[in-house]
Amino acid sequence: MPDLKxxxxxxxxxxxxxxxxxxxxxxxxxPSLMTSERLCAFNVNDANVLLLFIxxxxxxxxxxxxxxxxxxxxxxxxxxxxxxxxxxLPAWQDHLxxxxxxxxxxxxxxxxxxxxxxxxxxxxxxxxxxxxxxWSGF
Length: 138
What we know:
- It is a single chain.
- This protein is an alpha+beta fold.
- The chain has a single domain (9-58, 75-130), classed as Roll (2,3-Dihydroxybiphenyl 1,2-Dioxygenase, domain 1), CATH 3.10.180.10.
- 14% of the residues lie in helices and 36% in strands.
- The protein has a four-stranded mixed β-sheet with strand order 1-4-3-2, with helices on one face.
- Strand 9 and strand 10 (125-130) form a beta hairpin.
- The mean pLDDT is 95.
């Protein structure tokens, strides 16, 4: 069986693209790779891409001119975790507080990692977790 290298893209679904784009650029400090009415793509440390789609806006196949992207969607309070070094977590806590973002929870993991949890403007649960220390080997 072939090995997978990594997760390239992660998607969240939002109701207001302008509001979400502002949050991810300003609060999460992610540079935008591209923006359209349908989606916005963000660079996560030159290693991953976070995609934001308008909720319900991807229910039909999309012809890119080079192929078809099948329909997809997400509802509810979805979750994505970002990683940072152990020494950067306090800076993230201070940054989120300065931006008026409420930290809803904190967890200390048995492998030595720590996580903080908060929400984006659409209610998606975001986590910043220290690495290594959350999962074995990560």
